[in-house]
Each structure stands twice: as C-alpha cells, then as structure tokens.
Amino acid sequence: MPGMDIQLPQRYAVRASVNTIREVFDYIRQYKGKTFVLKIEDTLIDHPFFPLLMKDIVQLQDIGIHLIIVTGTRATIEKYLAKAKLHTRIVNGIRITTPSAMAHVKLAAMEVAQTVISHLAAGNAQGIMGNWIRARSLGVYDGLDYQYTGHVEKIQTRIVHKLLDQDFIPVIYNIGMNATGDCYNLNTDQIARQICLDMDIEKLFFIRAQDAIPTKGLELPPGSQVHPNGKIFSNMDISHVDFMLCQNKDRLSFENQTLLAYSKAVIDQPQGVKRVHIIDGRREGRLLQEVFSSIGGGTLIYGNQYAHIRQATLEDVPEILHLMDGYIKKGNLVMRTVSDIQNKIHAYHIYAVDHSVYGCGALYELGDGWGEIGAVAVSDTYKSKGIGRGLMQYLIQTARKKQIQTLFLLTTQAADWFFEFGFVWASPSDLPAPLQGRYNPKRNSRVLLLKL
Ligand SMILES: CC(C)(COP(=O)(O)OP(=O)(O)OC[C@H]1O[C@@H](n2cnc3c(N)ncnc32)[C@H](O)[C@@H]1OP(=O)(O)O)[C@@H](O)C(=O)NCCC(=O)NCCS
After folding, report:
1. CA 188 to CA 148: how far, in whole Å?
2. What residue owns the CA closest to ligand 1's atom 18?
C-alpha cells in the first residue's frame, strides 16, 4: 500500500521518542533534590564543546539537582610552571610541590575555578569558590619529602550544605588548609572522593578529555558490559572493578587504575555513592545522556543492582504489554492480552533497568521434560546492547535448573538469532503430540529445538 512504508517508521520513531521522554521524566523525579559531584578536568576548558558542557550542567541545576564541582588543575599548573621555568618532580602520579611551585599552583587553581564560575554565570547559575577542605601535609614517604603536597583530611560539609540549600554551586579546587592556615596542593580526584565519603551524594562524575574506560588489550571481567562499539566498558560492578585492578593492573593506565580504585572506595561504603560515571567531556551531550538514559555513553560503575533480570510481577504487566505491542502489530510476536500475561505471569522474566522494563521473555514448563520459550522482546530503543542475549542465557539456565530436557520455540523472523544459543531447525512433527495441536499452520512459524 502506498504510504504504509512512510507511516510505519514515523509511528515507531514517535513511540521511541515518547519512551525517551518518559524515561527522562522518571529520572528527573528520581534525582530532584539529590546531589551530584562533578569532577571536571581543566584540559576540557579549551575544547569547543566546553561551553555546551557547562550549559548542560546548569540545566541539571535548573531541574532541582544540587551540584558540587571539583576542578582538576593539573594541565594549568603545568602551564604556569613552564612559564616560570620551574620543574617539579612527579612520583607515582604525585607532584612534589616546592615552596616556589606552590605560588603558581595557587594561581592555576584560581584561574580554573574562575573560568568555571564564569561559564556558570553565563547560564545564570551562581558558582561560588572557597576553601572548604581541611588538609594536612603528605609528609615524608620512603625518605622523600612531598613538601607542600597535601592529603585531604575532611570537607567542611556544614558550609557546603548551606551553599547548596541557597542554590549556589560550590566550586572546589585543589587547595586545602591545615588548622593553622598553611596551604597544600591536593589531588582533586581525592577531593571528589572525600566529598562522596563525607556527604550524601547520589552520583559522582569524572568528566575528562579522554574516552571512558577502554577495553583494548584488557582481559574483560566476566559479566561486565561493553558498548556496542566494543571500545569502552559501558558498565561494571564492584566485583568487575576488583577483577580489573587485579588482572589488568599492568595493562591499565595509571590514571584509569586510580579512578577505578577511587570509584570502588566511594561505592563500597554502607552510605556510599550509588553510581560513578566516567565520561568523555569532549562528546557533546554525554553528561545528559549519562544522567537521563539508562544506557549512557560512558563507563558506569555501580554498587547496587543497577540492571537485572528478574521474574515479572503483576505490576510489570502494563510495561510488558507496552513493550510487546509494536512487535505484535508487526507480526514478530503472537497476540497476547493483559489476562494472557497475568495468567502466566510466573513464566515471564524481565530485564529491568531501575524501574523500567527493557526486555522480556517467557519460559513455559510443559511437563515430560519439555519447555517452551516465547515472548522474547527487547525495547526498540535498547536493541543490540546484549539485553536479548542476557535474557536468553538466563531463560536457558533457568530451564536447566528446572530439569527441562528439551526447549522449543516458534518464531517467524528471528530464527537466525536463536541459532546463536544452540537452537536447531525442527518441524511441528518433532513436538510431542499435545503440542502439535497448538501449532498454527496459518502463522507458519519456524520450529526450533534445543536439547539441554
Ligand atoms: C530478537 C531480539 C529479542 C534481540 O534482542 P537484542 O537485545 O537486540 O539482542 P542482542 O543485543 O543480544 O543481539 C543483537 C544482535 O542480534 C542480531 N539480531 C537481532 N534481531 C535479529 C533477527 N531477527 N535475526 C537475526 N539476528 C538478529 C542483531 O543484528 C545484533 O547483531 P550485532 O550484535 O552483530 O549487531 C530483538 O531484536 C527483538 O525484540 N526483536 C523483535 C521481537 C522478536 O522477533 N522476538 C523473537 C520472537 S520469538
């Protein structure tokens, strides 16, 4: 029919964007009133997208998220020291700050913080900088005096809370003071970590001028998720971080090792941060994508069960039906009503991200060692991210646990996909007699079998 080809994609595009809008609203509700810490590398400041990143940050505040910005200063310090022709030693990633270098470190800190505040002001947000860090000297290690390099002791949280309550965005830089007012040069990743340990923080972002955690040349922790481009980790939990720090110690860059270790430290606490995001600030919109979409563009490290497959409950039925609706209309799935799903709810399993259903699949126990897999579907928006594979592996594993010996399924358009899991061609006559009666010759589905 003329026009059909044009209307269908439009309708599905509208559905996808409506789903995205719903997802955004869910996240706004979830994060309103919560506090995010954003550690921003100074190497991003000269990037053409930096003003856009700052604009996105202001938008987060506009929807009621409290923000604390920590400014990385390493590159700017290098610039100041080079100008003054001063050389400082860096040992194990830590700069030994001499008294003459300290003056330049302070100038660099002010310059970066001031630039960030100017960008916030351009978006009508009020950044405020101040020294709210109690620090102490790092002292002497292995005979090496780190001089004015310090260690973060604690954050003066009372003041930071007050500022947040008044809608200021505290901008915290790399200088801390001891009780007598001596200044120390601090590591800003460590500052971000300490804020997370001392305050109730929902998310910590490391925004840098390089990609998220890369996979190249690394041994991948089993169960960790990689982006469809295969180049970066999309998410990992604490056990994956342990694996990375243990198995890939020599292959991970020093910076990524430290970041993973800090991430673990802030998540692995009873009141810890729920999620740490490592994102590339040079990619336009990456921050918003990470906050408002369950499958962002950076590396997410999580402690709680972020995405999981579980048995469906009656409350999930509307979402399951909504997910399957488009595929039923296209003929990929057979028609099901609310009561069809409700009556067999124990067979349904879902892939849930936070409170939303992104994939589903059913495992029906048919007796005599037979089982059937059906209703396998993944939301259009989240296809090709391994969700379908995860669901199938889960259903096959569950079938094995239930002592099912033969699994079958009927499919019209996805036979090739099921072959990956070991399914083979069969015909309706291979099914036990009672099941043969259920075969609909009009639909002419392909029959696939898997011996467990
Ligand atoms: C089939 C389906 C469940 C796969 O879910 P998914 O989460 O996208 O799958 P995965 O991410 O694990 O795998 C994606 C891979 O499978 C391939 N694939 C997807 N659908 C396929 C199909 N019908 N036939 C062959 N391969 C297919 C993709 O091309 C992709 O390949 P790539 O990784 O090389 O890019 C999903 O596409 C879907 O919901 N389809 C419509 C409903 C349907 O047909 N269900 C089966 C009815 S029984």
Report:
1. 15
2. 417
Per residue in 7-60, pLDDT (tens digit) is 434 544 555 577 778 778 888 998 999 999 999 999 999 999 999 999 999 999
CATH of domain 308-451: 3.40.630.30
Cα 383 to ligand 1 centroid, rounded to whole Å:
7
Domain ranges of the chain: 23-306, 308-451
CATH number for the domain formed by residue range(s) 23-306: 3.40.1160.10
In this structure, what are the phi and psi dihedrals at residue 418, rounded to the nearest 5 degrees? Answer: -70, -25
**How many angstroms does the Cα of residue 423 sit away from the middle of ligand 1?**
15
Name the least confident of 133-137, 350-354, 364-368.
350-354
Per-residue pLDDT, 230: 82
Phi, psi of 305 (to 5 degrees): -75, 100
Ligand 1 mean position, distance from CA 21 (Å): 24
Q: What is the rounded distance in angstroms from the CA atom of residue 42 to the CA atom of residue 171?
A: 13
Phi-psi region of 196 (alpha: psi -120 to 50; beta: other; left: phi over 0): alpha
Which amino acids bring their CB within 6 angstroms of ligand 1?
327, 332-333, 376-378, 383-389, 409, 411, 413-414, 416-417
Distance 150 CA to ligand 1 centre (A): 53
Indicate which atom in ligand 1 lies nearest the CA of residue 374. 48
Q: Give the separation between CA 220 and CA 299, rounded to whole angstroms.
A: 14
Q: Is the pLDDT of residue 423 over 90?
A: yes
The per-residue pLDDT for range 311-345, each reduced to its tens digit, is 999 999 999 999 999 999 988 899 999 999 999 99
State in Å: Cα 392 to ligand 1 middle. Answer: 11
